[in-house]
Specification:
The protein is an alpha+beta fold and 580 residues long. It is globular, with a radius of gyration of 23 Å.
Length: 580
């Protein structure tokens, strides 16, 4: 690729300078606001069609909804039951694309058991649904990529999942979906966009729109990393079309253009628990229907992810809080299917995310469809909302199609069709080769083969970059103190190549230490901060401030999770604001 995909500090400075027109750079064709999965997908679509593209994110890549999902790439069985066949088919096609062509290094199949609790009618009913599910996955452009479903009797279920209560079921159906580290997927898409020429900058807040008459011609923005009053802190970035992909903040962005817009996004909170893998003996995950939603028990490396809830949320959108009631709800439902019940002491991590649901009626959030919508409320501004992680590429394509229409009418610029279904994400190209060379890579690097497997699952073919870093700085080839599943090199690489600027970015999103350790990353924080300080030029005071902020954030989250209601949980969590 002609440009580096690295999103280090220098790349950010250069991106901001280019977007602000320093050095006579022309205005952008497309400026994307929002660095979640939809925003980065839109930026990649735009730049690969030949449009000059920028992306601004107020916090960190995937810092909102896109790092707090169920981490599934799936068609959505419950949407099949809602007869939303178009959405399911589209999502299954995208699942196949991601698994077989676009991100085979990040997306992997995962088996699930669908327990059957009613004799007679349920097996043919669910079996027919899963036959349709598999059939839809097989008829698209890409391969299905996962095994087909199969029927199991009670005794087979007991062998696969010894800790599952089989006395209440008549059997199960085993089927496959896929999973992905959602934050890593979003980051990899952002880096792929940067490698193709997009300008990407995080910690930049959009404060208003630039207007010429009715038309939006860019944004006013503030570089949150620059000291107040410094030159370059407040920026004007001009673009022929601005695409708003702000997710649950869509309504706030609409307010900036005078409240004009036809989208209303309702935030729905979903919480997940993380428990150690040894707490539930099973070779497969589970999917169980509850009275309000669906309960997933999902294998996640040496852990299980259990979720989710589906409740309206109208409080702080940056840091939605899980209450004691949320945690009890999930524990009660999972314990109904387990021989050995889980309690609060088994929970390593808790995270809460907000789904951006398009709403127009007073229906419960669990019934609102995950379809997405694109609108152009005023000339020069495209807004996209709704959708789901799996279909991010389709959403990006539709947003750029709307932008292309605007470009054609204003500057007579003909925009080519989307090609993102044929653009593998960085790390995909050499992943299979490097996987075949895993033993060789272990010998050369001095790392255990299990370590190489871990790196391959996170970086794919970019594992070479991480191993080169270890080869030149041997001290980075050691486990990170306090979070031994990760290497010290991964913290440094997160800063130099992955745009991490704060300790939160590394412990919460570049790694998942904040939810995969019982102490929530408190033990790893000082060591990780020292590694980051050397790359970012932090002095001891700044390093101590980063650690202190992280520890206070963890404590605020712990306190919020003891509170009985959303209101009290929110009040406990917002006591610690963002570090920037």
């Amino acid at each position: 690729m002609n440009r580096s995909s690295a999103l280090g500090p220098q790349a950010r400075d250069e991106a901001l300078a280019a977007m602000a027109g320093v050095g006579g750079q022309p205005e952008l064709d497309v400026l994307v606001v929002g660095g979640g999965i939809v925003g980065v997908g839109t930026a990649l679509d735009a730049v690969t069609r030949g449009l000059s593209t920028g992306l601004l994110e107020q916090r960190d890549i995937a810092s909102g909804t896109s790092s707090r999902s169920s981490k599934l790439v799936h068609g959505g069985l419950r949407y099949l039951e809602m007869l939303d066949f178009g959405l399911v088919r589209e999502a299954l096609q995208e699942r196949g694309l991601l698994l077989t062509r676009l991100a085979p290094h990040l997306v992997r199949p995962v088996p699930f058991l669908y327990p059957l609790t009613h004799r007679g009618w349920e097996r043919p009913y669910v079996g027919a649904g899963l036959m349709l599910y598999d059939g839809m996955a097989m008829i698209g452009k890409s391969e299905m990529g996962v095994p087909r479903h199969r029927h199991l009797f009670r005794r087979q279920v007991a062998r696969i999942a010894p800790d599952f209560k089989t006395e209440t079921i008549s059997g199960a159906i085993k089927y496959y979906d896929c999973q992905v580290d959602d934050a890593r997927l979003a980051l990899t898409i952002a880096r792929t966009a940067a490698a193709n020429g997009a300008h990407v900058a995080t910690r930049v807040q959009v404060t208003g729109f630039l207007r010429e008459g009715e038309r939006v011609v860019g944004v006013r923005a503030r570089d949150l990393e620059a000291p107040p009053g410094s030159p370059g802190r407040d920026l004007e970035i001009r673009a022929r079309v601005v695409v708003n992909a702000a997710g649950v903040w869509t309504d706030e962005i609409q307010e900036m253009v005078g409240g004009r817009g036809s989208l209303h996004v309702q935030a729905s909170k979903g919480i997940h628990l993380v428990v150690p893998r040894d707490r539930i003996r099973s070779e497969a995950g589970f999917i169980v229907r509850t009275e309000k939603s669906v309960l997933f028990v999902i294998p996640w490396g040496r852990h299980w992810i259990i979720g989710t809830t589906d409740t309206p949320w109208s409080l702080d959108k940056a840091h939605p809080a899980a209450s004691r009631a949320d945690i009890d709800y999930i524990l009660d439902h999972v314990n109904a299917i387990l021989r050995e019940p889980l309690d609060h002491e088994d929970v390593e991590g808790v995270y809460a995310g907000l789904r951006p649901l398009l709403s127009g009626e007073s229906e419960p959030t669990s019934r609102i469809s995950r379809e997405h919508t694109v609108v152009t409320p005023v000339p020069g501004l495209v807004m996209i909302a709704g959708g789901k992680l799996t279909t991010y590429r389709v959403m990006g394509r539709d947003a750029v199609d709307a932008a292309a229409h605007s470009l054609k009418t204003t500057v007579d610029l003909t925009v080519r069709d989307s090609i993102t279904d044929r653009v593998p994400l960085i790390g995909a190209a050499d992943w299979e080769t490097r996987s075949n060379q895993r033993v060789l890579l272990a010998r050369r690097s001095g790392l255990h083969v299990a370590r190489i497997d871990h790196l391959l699952g996170r970086y794919g073919g970019l594992v070479d970059d991480v191993l080169d870093l270890i080869a030149t700085r041997r001290t980075l080839g050691v486990p990170l103190e306090g979070a031994e599943d990760y290497l010290a090199a991964e913290v440094v690489y997160a800063v130099t190549h992955e745009g991490a600027r704060h300790l939160d970015d590394v412990l919460t999103r570049r790694t998942r230490i904040s939810i995969e350790t019982f102490d929530r990353g408190v033990g790893a924080a000082p060591v990780a901060a020292r590694l980051m300080a050397a790359e970012l030029g932090w002095d001891p005071a700044r390093t101590a401030e980063e650690v202190d902020h992280y520890l206070r954030r963890v404590e605020a989250e712990r306190q919020s999770q003891l509170m009985p209601t959303d209101q009290e949980a929110d009040e406990a969590r917002v006591k610690v604001a963002d570090i920037v």
